[in-house]
Amino acid sequence: MDQSGIADRRRLRRKLTFWRIVGLLAVVLLVFGLTYAGGFAERGEKARSHIARVMVSGVITANEDLLERLEDVRDDPNVRAVVIGIESPGGTTYGGEVLYKAVRDISAVKPVVAEVRGLAASAGYMIASATDHIVAGEASIVGSIGVIFQYGNISELLDNIGVSVGAVKSSPLKAEPSPFSPANPEAEEMIGRLVADSYDWFVDLVAERRNMTRPETLAIADGSIFTGRQALQNGLVDAIGAEDEVRAYLGTRDIDTDLDIVDWEPERSRGLLFGQAAAGLIGGMFGNSALGSQVLSAFTDQKLFLDGLISVWQFGGQQARDDWGNTP
């Protein structure tokens, strides 16, 4: 190729690179604009009187972001009432406790209703019981009132591979139960007392909130789960239905039933959504459409380990995620 052809090819390559960059910036700006336009629209909805809906989903922990949102809807004068949407198998007893108290704080200043989307078990039901009124679907799962303490034991595995673990303790019950040795009877008794005390607290809480006697509550607090229909019969929920029944109850509390229900979602989720989209686009521009999302996942993916006392039904499900599907 002569010098003129080489120069033409270089100019063409520079133009192609320039327009690639311009195209990338245009697409990124478009994604950015669409993402935050939704945020502006949401803030506009929140600027007028409305009913706030906050979702509690996945495995429950002491989620600071969720607690802050509950405080915000409690204090916002434009929020006339609150709907707590629940889709959870439960979680840690402490996570359920702090969210329960946050919902009770809302109830002290404005009406709050639980809408069971499909599952409100264990700590999930604990949070539902904090509301003024519980609405559940006919086939939803409700209940599993109880507490469990789980721990692993890998002593046989260590024996098989020839590994021993020693320990010097200040007292026999220190750091018991241990995964490196079978639990002794004293340790099991100690954990039993802990579980029993938390269970008693849970039972008394349900009895108080559902206006039951303790014997009535104990009769259904054996870990059993119930359909929404059964839960209505045994007093664990107040109505069968969904949004229409939620609005009907709020109407009895002097709340305008025509008010919009606005989902209060995590503020940070919009930024993460933008970041995921941009990462994917950048990866695509460089010949690998999965590159951006893979890198982002390496930094955002977190594993949930629940250690100790939990109140959960069928533990082993997915980690709790926020309204946008992101791990908190």
UniProtKB/TrEMBL annotation:
<comment type="similarity">
    <text>Belongs to the peptidase S49 family.</text>
</comment>
<keyword id="KW-0720">Serine protease</keyword>
<keyword id="KW-0645">Protease</keyword>
<protein>
    <submittedName>
        <fullName>Signal peptide peptidase SppA</fullName>
    </submittedName>
</protein>
<dbReference type="InterPro" id="IPR047272">
    <property type="entry name" value="S49_SppA_C"/>
</dbReference>
<dbReference type="InterPro" id="IPR002142">
    <property type="entry name" value="Peptidase_S49"/>
</dbReference>
<dbReference type="InterPro" id="IPR029045">
    <property type="entry name" value="ClpP/crotonase-like_dom_sf"/>
</dbReference>
<keyword id="KW-0378">Hydrolase</keyword>
<feature type="domain" description="Peptidase S49">
    <location>
        <begin position="107"/>
        <end position="248"/>
    </location>
</feature>
<dbReference type="GO" id="GO:0006508">
    <property type="term" value="P:proteolysis"/>
</dbReference>
<dbReference type="Pfam" id="PF01343">
    <property type="entry name" value="Peptidase_S49"/>
</dbReference>
<dbReference type="GO" id="GO:0008236">
    <property type="term" value="F:serine-type peptidase activity"/>
</dbReference>
<dbReference type="InterPro" id="IPR004635">
    <property type="entry name" value="Pept_S49_SppA"/>
</dbReference>
